[in-house]
């Protein structure tokens, strides 16, 4: 893992870690979703409130992780990981808020508690950095599971009208992004591609994250049906 971190570009030398054309949508799309949720008043619903929090976190994450003026060199390796942990928690609770009306969700709560406990323990024992990759993969697998289960439940309850549900766009965008993340990690770990390509990993994942953010924005714009799935 340390070898891979060494291959990442040095922000102090390169300036923006991402091309400016990627940084713009990474900040504009979540901000647009935030404005949409506030104007429409959708944030008053629990799931949309969590979606609002998720978009705020993704916006701040893009600002603090990719703009060198905000980046602190002494936390360059830890900061993105803790942003991702917050993202994991919000996404998990978001899907839980929907699934709790259809299936038992205690297992999601257990996974969240275990996940946070493991991270806190590793951080306290100063063993976090060597295990960052494994934890990131575990997080991606769990989130993909949450999204997949939500889509299955949605198909069973909505059939042909799933595109009218905000949950579809949230789950589809989430599953798409984390599937790509897992595919990239698998390719690197199984040495299907040269590890020197790790330098292209941040912009590659950023590009696919833009697709996810677009799906989140669409979910904010979809007109809720009378019996909206995300409504509590």
Would you give an account of this structure?
- This protein is mostly helical and 232 residues long.
- It has one domain (2-221).
- The chain has nine helices and no strands.
- The protein has helices at residues 2-7, 11-14, 20-40, 46-66, 79-99, 106-124, 132-158, 166-189, 201-221.
- The longest helix has 27 residues, at 132-158.
- The relative contact order is 0.15.
- Residues 1-16, 73-78 and 225-229 have low confidence and may be disordered.
- Count of DSSP H/I helices: 9
The average pLDDT value, as a whole number, equals 81
Q: Low-confidence stretches at least 5 residues in length (pLDDT < 50)?
A: 1-16, 73-78, 225-229
Q: Which structural class should the secondary elements be placed in?
A: mainly alpha
For the record, the count of structural domains works out to 1
User: What is the number of strand segments?
Assistant: 0
Shape: globular
The main sheet comes to: none
């Amino acid at each position: 893992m340390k070898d891979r971190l060494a291959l990442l570009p040095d922000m102090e030398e390169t300036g923006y870690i991402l091309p400016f054309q990627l940084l713009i949508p990474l900040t504009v799309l979540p901000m647009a979703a935030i404005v949409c949720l506030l104007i429409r008043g959708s944030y008053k619903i629990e799931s949309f409130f969590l979606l609002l929090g998720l978009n705020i976190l993704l916006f701040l994450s893009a600002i603090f992780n990719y703009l060198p003026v905000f980046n602190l060199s002494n936390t360059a390796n830890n900061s993105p990981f803790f942003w991702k942990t917050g993202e994991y928690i919000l996404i998990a609770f978001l899907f839980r808020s929907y699934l709790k009306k259809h299936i038992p969700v205690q297992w999601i709560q257990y996974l969240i508690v275990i996940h946070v406990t493991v991270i806190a323990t590793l951080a306290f024992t100063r063993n976090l950095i060597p295990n960052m990759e494994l934890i990131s993969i575990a997080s991606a697998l769990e989130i993909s599971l949450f999204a997949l289960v939500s889509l299955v439940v949605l198909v069973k309850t909505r059939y042909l009208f799933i595109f009218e549900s905000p949950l579809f766009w949230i789950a589809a965008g989430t599953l798409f992004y984390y599937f790509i993340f897992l595919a990239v990690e698998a390719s690197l770990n199984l040495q299907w591609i040269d590890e020197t390509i790790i330098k292209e990993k941040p912009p590659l994942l950023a590009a696919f994250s833009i697709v996810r953010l677009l799906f989140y924005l669409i979910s904010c714009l979809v007109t809720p049906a009378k019996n909206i799935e995300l409504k509590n």
